[in-house]
Description:
Keywords: Bacterial flagellum, Cell projection, Cilium, Flagellum. Residues 116-172 form the Flagellar hook protein FlgE/F/G-like D1 domain. One of its GO terms (cellular component) is bacterial-type flagellum basal body. It is built from three helices and 21 strands. By secondary structure, it is an alpha+beta fold. It folds into two domains: 2-29 and 41-74 and 235-270, no CATH class; 80-229, no CATH class. The strands form nine sheets. Strands 9, 10, 13 and 17 form a four-stranded antiparallel sheet that branches. The longest helix has 36 residues, at 235-270. It is elongated and about 90 Å long. It starts with a helix and ends with a helix.
Amino acid sequence: MLRGLHAAGAGMIAQQRRQEMLTNNLSNVNTPGFKADQASLRTFPNMLISAMGTDHARSHGTNRVGELATGVYMQEQTPKFNQGDMQETGNNTDIAILQGRVPQDEETGQNAVLLFETLNSDGDLRYTRNGSLTIDSEGFLTSSQGYYILAADGEPVNVQNETIRVNSDGDIFSAEDELLGQINVAVISDPEQLVKEGNGLLRYDGENDTPSAIDNDDVSYQLQQGFVERSTVDASQTMTEMMSALRSFEANQKVLQAYDQSMERAVNDIGRLR
């Protein structure tokens, strides 16, 4: 009976975590460049049950009864880095990455991902697909979080004002057609090593290099000025999955309540001395 309590409790915890993930996805349905998280439920390793007495062994020729499931858990959340739709804004500082050909890992079959490279106030690199950029008081091109957007030479890009023109290669020109720099696009070959830090920022914890997509023969892409990449969250599908998670949570809750009532009766009624 206690094993049943643990299994039902594990199911409730797994569905609660799934619900939290789906809720976060839905809340970012309008966040530019947001990549929806995905995860799956898996069972814990089964336990092999054996009979303690000898009657079972004599009747069946073995003391093994069978396997017992020990509950489920939700695997690690991973962003789904597929290409989002383009939304035109008309703002000069809005820039979207239109990803084309990228390298593929031969072992995992996973495609690399292209990201803007930013520099935070501590001098650490962070990555994002949110191309809703701004210009700070000093004229530097920054992300929506205020982090410097890095150029191909690894330095922040100073554009002075919003009267800029950005071509498909990321070259930035002033109103007088002066070349101000080129926006760097980093190639992350193992995106499973990217960790979300909130506000559309990603931290890379992998050991592989993060080369630039500029003049990279293995990569094709375009930067589109005046556009942002929309979130990859499917609102209707997410709502359906949230309802499914809620129903599964309630089913496990009823099982837990049934076990609780059975234990209460066993303690208060069956075990009572008359």
